[in-house]
């Protein structure tokens, strides 16, 4: 009898104990796009969506695109390149407020387009990849997560990790964002803008020259307005700039009456290959459609093959 009472008491005691609390899974502020057939292997894509984001009544067709480093953020340490995930600060105190104004009051879609050649997404398993190289991707994700969490706006970041069609000034990242947001044919190019520090600016008193003109060239290639961070956030006047190669300085002689230009290209062989080399926007496609297609040539290009 005593044994039965003891068992009953133990059972009641177990039933009275509350189950352990369910651990809530911590959700990352950024998520890498799920891999599928059309996900570029060299492009890192992260998207931040604030909690309880309302459904938008209409599509946002104006895009405000920003570079990341030296545009939205700078290193807190003062070094040229960040050495840790926490080594960042806002490029200027006005950055968060300006982005929130563009999204909430002006109806812009906010995106970040960044060249990140130092990141290795798919290391060769047979190669001895340094641990520091592997850690860069993790540190970059942590930094981006912190930046986007502080902004707390719906933002997508695209980071090009190789020197391919996705690296600025090439238009690959722009085409990806248009596909992701279903903007092909609907995007408002006239009112869209890209802000980045690589504007090809020449040296001036107390200022150094830009390391590149890739951001300015990128904006030209996709057909939108371009501004430097100083112009956009601080209202400074544009500085003089130069391009290493500017196709505008070499106009095609459309109206020339020279007989030598009547025939631009002749097909002399039944089987041959015409190799067109030049930077984006140089006129390779235009040359093909105008002079080669009528002769029966077929066109092979990276934009079509996604290679």
TrEMBL record:
It comes from Colletotrichum liriopes. Residues 1-58 are annotated as: Disordered. GO terms for biological process: DNA repair. PANTHER family: BIFUNCTIONAL POLYNUCLEOTIDE PHOSPHATASE/KINASE, BIFUNCTIONAL POLYNUCLEOTIDE PHOSPHATASE_KINASE. One of its GO terms (molecular function) is ATP-dependent polydeoxyribonucleotide 5'-hydroxyl-kinase activity. Coiled coil: none annotated. This is Bifunctional polynucleotide phosphatase/kinase. SUPFAM superfamilies: HAD-like, P-loop containing nucleoside triphosphate hydrolases. InterPro entries: HAD-like_sf, HAD-SF_hydro_IIIA, HAD_sf, P-loop_NTPase, PNK3P, Polynucleotide_phosphatase. Pfam families: AAA_33 (PF13671), PNK3P (PF08645). Gene3D superfamilies: HAD superfamily/HAD-like (3.40.50.1000), P-loop containing nucleotide triphosphate hydrolases (3.40.50.300).
